[in-house]
Each structure stands twice: as structure tokens, then as C-alpha cells.
Amino acid sequence: MYIDYSLWETFEYSLNTLQLDLNNPRLKYRGVNLNQTQIMAFLIKNEKVYELAKKISEEGYFVGEEPIICIENNKKVVLEGNRRTAAMKLLQDPKKYLSTAKANTLLQNILVNNIPVDKKLKCYIAPNRLLANPIIYERHNGASLQRWKTGNQYAFVAEMYYEDGLGIDDICDVLNESRPRILKPLKAYNLFFEGKEILSREEGIDIEISEFEFTNLERFYSFDKAREFLGIEFNNENGELLINIPRSEFELRLLEVFKLIIDSERFSRDFNKDDDKNRLVDKLYSDPKFDFKVEAVANVESKTAQQKADLEAKKNNVTNRKQKKSKKSFFENRIIPGDKEIIFDNDKLENLFSELKHLPVDKKYSFAVLLRTYLEQSLYFYLRENNLFDSLTIKTNEENNKNSQKKIQLLTTHLKGKYKIDEEIDSEAITNILRFNSSKDYSNASLGIMLDYVKNNELDNHLDTNKLKNLKHYIDRIKDGLDLAVHNLETVIDFEHNKRAWIHLEPLFDILSNNINRE
Known about the structure:
The protein has about 525 residues and is mainly alpha-helical.
């Protein structure tokens, strides 16, 4: 499948805004929901993240190794580059995760090499997780990066079939692989899935897919006589497991095989040459616990086949529900569309927008108050990140001086007319008395001042004439309405107020977020 990766955008993100991926094949198939700290601890312990951080602290962060992320549930999730991202996070706070000795080693390197631990990380943004899969698969199937263990590779392919719902041809297309190279991991995964579950249930032995010796399992079921003993075959169209004997007898036999395979070194010796293979299978056939008089049966469903069926049923159910549910009812319950994204690369702003976006229409006062907060803080962030507060101070003081001179001119004209004064009145003296000549620091400006500055100085190059005129016309009205919602007890807010406010402010938020100085 051809993908034009040159269209993928890049941004530099703060490390604390990047989320390590719980669905990373290094982690996912351990059956535990880990938080970010636990993922860090796991990667340090199992995936040589300390060693990588040490290497970076000694040699630098190599260019050309940018992580790949995608936006999921308003979070920047690292799809590719979890070890590198974790290593950079580790350099930010070594003492949080490491022993004193290891932490001091990194801290010493950071000091000696003057490493900027608050460094932002350049990332490629994938449109979605699926489109990043070919790169991830290719990198970790080869030697350019730390190669996944066999179980991680097999699970990666199986996830695309059993969780993402792709067909075999689709997976071949996405990963640029032949059908046999996709069916091979699916066959092994399907039998492993059965054996893992039985071994845990009957013997209390839990095996991790990354640590399991798949080579031995594949050698076993590739031997015709061994497959006959298990009563299995594989569907060569999709790799699914076909069980030809009653499930209870199948599980009894598979349990015995897995108990042998998990002792991988011994099994490798005992199941080596053809004579060894025949000898081991004959020994299994001689075990009296097995019933070899059972009749062959058809359509004994494997665990993964049931999982696939459940997925298809779920997809069909969701499709049917979507067909019944009109789009109108969905959008009527939310003012901001669910797929709307505004990215400032700031945790608080992203959380504010997420809460704002998910407010239903009946939370009218909450929406108005939160929208005003989001407007004020996004303006402040834009001005701060673009170093515009000095310019804001200068222009605001200039504007104040102009307005002051107009007031003084009005006052002197009134005095001369009322009191019949012929001499010129010293406007400078009035300016000093009224303190109209003082300059203020606007680095902590109010919403109104920030909005005026942005309206008058930052929008002209981003919209056509009509849209710009419309936006500037409504900005002051929307701001006044939001101020009243927050400060005036008598102000009544309804859905239409909030809807109009969002419609007119949305292009402003887009301009602000798309023009942040990210250097």
C-alpha cells in the first residue's frame, strides 16, 4: 500500500505532553493496565531504556530518529519511538526512576555535556494508528532499531486481524508482506492463545508472549504426527485454528504439550531430529490420560475465532446503531463537534478544551464560563510564546496616550468656552495632574487588552477581507457577553448565546493555535 509520508506534519512537543503507548507490543500483551510511571518503570527494567538514556547523555540524541505520534482522545500518543521518548523523559528526572548510582551517572553526563533536559522532541504526526503500522513493523522486524521479540511481532500482526478488523489481504497490503508471512504469525498466535489460557487456568502458570519460545511451538505443529495428536489443522486462508476433536480432549492434550514446550532448552533437545520427534510424540500417545477413541468432530470454535466473530458482531451492531441514529441528534447535544481539534502543545489548554468540547448543550452556564477562561488563557499563551508582551505594552500605551489627548482636548475646549478663557491652556499640566502620561507594564494584561491587541495586530494576514471584518465585528460583542455571564448575576445565558459565541471564536482559536512560535 502506497502512503505519501511526506504529507505528515512535524511539531516539536514538550516531553511531558507525550504519552507512552499502552498498546505498544512490548507492553500490551501482559494483561495489565499500566499508568505512565509504570510504563516507564517497565521499559527501564525490560527494554534497556537506562542504557539508551546513558548513550544519549554521552553521545547526543541522533537526528533522523523522530518519534511517530498520533492524537487519540486529545492525547499525543507515541506509536513509534517509545524507548527513545522514555529515555529522554528519564534524563529529565533520573532520581525518580533510578538507583542513586545510576541517577548520578546520568546527572553527571548532563552537567558535563550541558544537555538541555527541557528539550522539546520533534515528532511526526500520523493521521491514525493504522497508517503508522508499516513503519513500525518494518523498523522492528529488521535490524535498524531494537528488534521486537518474536512474540511481540506475532502479536502486532494478530492485533490488526483480531482487534482492528482488517482482512488478510489488507494486512499484506499495509505491511507490504506476502500472504504466507502474515499467516505464519497468525497460526502460531492462535495456538499460543489457547495454550496460554489453559496453562494459566489449570496449572496457575502465566506465560508472557514476549518470553515464549515460538520456534519450538512452530516446530511442533509443523510435524504432521504432532498435529494429528493435538487434533488440529489451520485454515490456510486466514490462519485460524481448526480443532477436530472435542474441546475437552483438545485442551487436555494441548496442556501437556505446553508443559513440555515451556521448558524450552529441554524441549529443543528432545524435539530435534525426526527420530527425536517421533519418540516424543509416541510417548504422548502412550499416556493413558488421553482418550484416542474420541470421534472426530467439526466446528469446534477456537478462542480467537470467537474473538473475531465478536468483533464482527460488534462492528455490525455499531454500524446498525449509527444508521438508526441521525447525525443531527448527535450534534444537537454538543456545541463543539467531537472531531474538532485545537492543539496548543500545553497540557492545561488541552484539558480545558477537552472539557469544553464534551459539555452537553444543557450545561449553558458552565460552557460560557469555561469558554471565557479558555479564550483568556489561549490568548495569554499565544502572546507569551510569541514574545509579544513588549509589543502589546508599547502599542497599548500609545493607544492610551492618544485617547488621553482626545479627552484633554475636549476638556480644554469646554473650559475655554464656558469660562471665556482667551489664553491657551497648558495641556501638559493637565496631563500631569490627571497622570495621563504614565506608562504601564501590560505583561499581565486583562482579557480585553489582550483581545484588542490580537484583533488589531495579529489577524490581518490569516483571513480574507470579509471573514476578517466579520470576526473583528463580533469579537467585542462576544467578549462582552462572556464577561456578563461571569460577572453579572442578572445575565441569562441560553444555547443560542453559546452557539454564536463558539461559531465566531472558532477561527480565532484556529489562528492562535496554528501560529504559535514552537522554536
